[in-house]
Amino acid sequence: MRSIGSRAALLHLLVGTSVATLALTSTAARAEDAPAAPAEATQAAPAPADTGLQDITVTATRRSELSKDVPLAVTTIGGEKLDVLNSSGLDIRFLSSRTPSLQIESSFGRTFPRFYIRGLGNTDFDINAAQPVSVVYDDVALENSLLKSFPVFDLQNVEVLRGPQGTLFGRNTPAGVIKIDSAKPSDTFGGYGSVSWATYNTVNAEAAVGGPIGGGFTFRASGLLQHRDNWVTNTSTTGVANKKLEGYTDYAGRLQIGYTSGDFDALLNVHGRGLEGTPRVFRAGLFQQGSNNFSPGFDPKKVAIDGYTSQSLSQWGADLKLSYHIAGAGTLYSITGYEKAAVESTGDIDGGNRYVFPALGLNNALFPSNTGGRSRPTEFSQEIRFQSDEFGAFRVQGGGYYFLQKLHYDEFDYKFPATGNRAADLDADINHADTNENYGIYASVEYKPVKDLTLRAGGRYSHDRRDDLVSGFSPFLFGNALPIRTKASDGYATWDVSATYAVSPLVNLYARAATGYQGPAIQDRVTFGSKPTAARKQTTISAEGGIKGSNADKTLRFAIDGYYYDTKDLQITAVGGASNSARLLNAAHAVGYGIEIEAEARPVPPLTLTASGSWNHTEIRDPNIGVSPCGAACTVTNPVVGGLAVINGNPLPQAPEFVGNVTARYGVPVGNGEAYIFTDWAYRSEINYFLYAAKEFRGRSELQGGLKIGYTIGKVDVAAFARNITNQIRSISAIDFNNLTGMINEPRIIGGEIKVKF
């Protein structure tokens, strides 16, 4: 805990420095402003001509290109839309359902997001679980899900790359990539500050400042503070759980220093985060037996739990990006990343305070279960990449990549009834020391045989090595003798080929085939009779094709694609069930296919509309695989053979068939400024929480809406906003081993915001 405190002090210093720098530099800027021109020389500037929708530039191919020229399905969120969606103190989960085929959920709250693209993801809540969606933050791939939760603030944009990205982004990307790019230093001084206050004392404060330092150096400092009071009351009169829950204080800072000298560029990025709060609240007996409706008496603002509850996180990292342009050849890049975190999270897993059989009804469980852990992931990565200039009809890029993760974590289990002395109540302490090492080499080539046709092809070889050591003590080992060491090692070559054809200067057709790879995985839980298990590598082959373009006056932009994939040896984790065991398995196949559509329109200059959606079909194909069904009194709808639910033909977990979202912005001049209204709506259809199907554990469809009404004058914006404006409460996940436990979404938040740019 001492190390967490010292890191927290460092984070406070980093955020404080960012805010102080903002205040000082803005004062200096005002002092240096040139005097105003004489009144008689001042003339009103003519209104700029309306040029329609602005072109979208993406870096999905590791180069800056127009989105319509990129031969893959990619969605960009930036500017005002990103600011609106990321309001009211939300974390990265705000992106869920905001682009086609994307879902994000967590059973840990703000510290462990799980991503799903086109249905491919991993519901496993274990700290060492591998995910098939990579998060690349400022060109550094983050592997551990605890690190993937770093807050999104002061951003340039977010890109969602759908489908395998095995060549340019590497292994563990068979489903796609979430690419996040922060705003970079520039040689123009400027910045902003914003603060909002909302329901449950929700505070979202953000500030950034940047500009030239001199001698070729530039800087950008930014900081974020998010807070919410505990808004859920614990009605239990027994136990040791906190009486108020679901609050947090989350703060982060980032300092970037850039340097340019001729053909050489360097960018140093130092960042950190601290979080104090409560873990995800589990709600015992949330579902009525035989349906997915909530039990009578359910109140989102109340729960009854009796176990220990706590959560804290300290994270910091640094990355260095170097580039040197070699005249007549290309640019050589070096990207070095280092990330480290210390996380503690403990929750009342049964979610109740009454223990009865059968465990039906609100707050009822079969038996108490209070678990937690302390995790310390450390990741180092190094990439060297060469990107050529254009040589006639050719462009190439390629490089090498190395990644090393050290993960140490402890799993705790507490006695019941608890005495209030955590050390004395500790009933189990399982220690894990894991190593995950990967290296890869890759190359990609682009060729234009004729003016309107672009061909691309690439390949990558990746190799993974994992080594897990389990030690410690637990009364629930059931025959396991510790320590236990498990190893796994394998490699794979991935590739992609694509073609883009310009039907006209405004419309492109594209087709793409690609493969993806997820390295071998290890599941190393040992309690309740579970034994460490390893799964073979998971591979995906995919094909997609589409059309992208706009109309002549740029009042309409669109993208439509269709895709198909087949994932072989799908890694799945069968968790929970009557024995609360965990097994890592390979299903023979999982297939998915669907259609994705995006459109943006400006029918008249004051009005901007966006809409996107997807239809996704996913299916597990393995007639010989079965998993343990629920230990609770749930209603399983799959055949049960030999105590195992047959999951052949089931959709993938957390994979809705339909996803859709729309936004609308309308602004009109009022006085010397603009009054505007912005609304956004996101929908997803029903989902399965687990590999097997049960009536209680099928999430109902969800429709979330937001609204922002504001006035902008000069560089000042004042607005009122609401998130989840209909206050629709839905269960987003569940726990099945003990009772009919579920977790719910964020409540309605209403507040006001002011933002100042300079």
Overview of the structural elements:
The chain is mostly beta strands. The chain has a single domain (2-28, 54-757), classed as Beta Barrel (Maltoporin, Chain A). The chain is 6% helix and 56% strand. It is built from three helices and 45 strands. It has a 22-stranded antiparallel β-barrel. A five-stranded mixed beta sheet has the order 3-8-9-6-7. It is globular, with a radius of gyration of 26 Å. Mean pLDDT is 91; it is low at 1-45.
Could you give the topology of this structure?
Elements: H1 2-32, E1 57-58, E2 65-66, E3 74-78, H2 79-85, E4 102-105, E5 114-117, E6 133-137, E7 140-142, E8 155-162, E9 176-182, E10 190-198, E11 202-214, E12 217-228, E13 232-234, E14 244-245, E15 248-261, E16 264-277, E17 302-303, E18 310-326, E19 330-348, E20 354-355, E21 364-365, E22 370-388, E23 394-414, H3 422-425, E24 426-450, E25 453-473, E26 484-504, E27 507-518, E28 521-523, E29 533-535, E30 538-550, E31 556-576, E32 581-604, E33 607-621, E34 626-627, E35 640-641, E36 644-646, E37 658-670, E38 673-684, E39 687-688, E40 698-699, E41 702-713, E42 716-723, E43 731-735, E44 741-744, E45 749-757
Parallel strand pairs: 6-9, 13-17, 20-21
Antiparallel strand pairs: 1-2, 3-8, 4-5, 6-7, 8-9, 10-11, 10-45, 11-12, 12-15, 13-14, 15-16, 16-18, 18-19, 19-22, 22-23, 23-24, 24-25, 25-26, 26-27, 27-30, 28-29, 30-31, 31-32, 32-33, 33-37, 34-36, 35-36, 37-38, 38-41, 39-40, 41-42, 42-45, 43-44
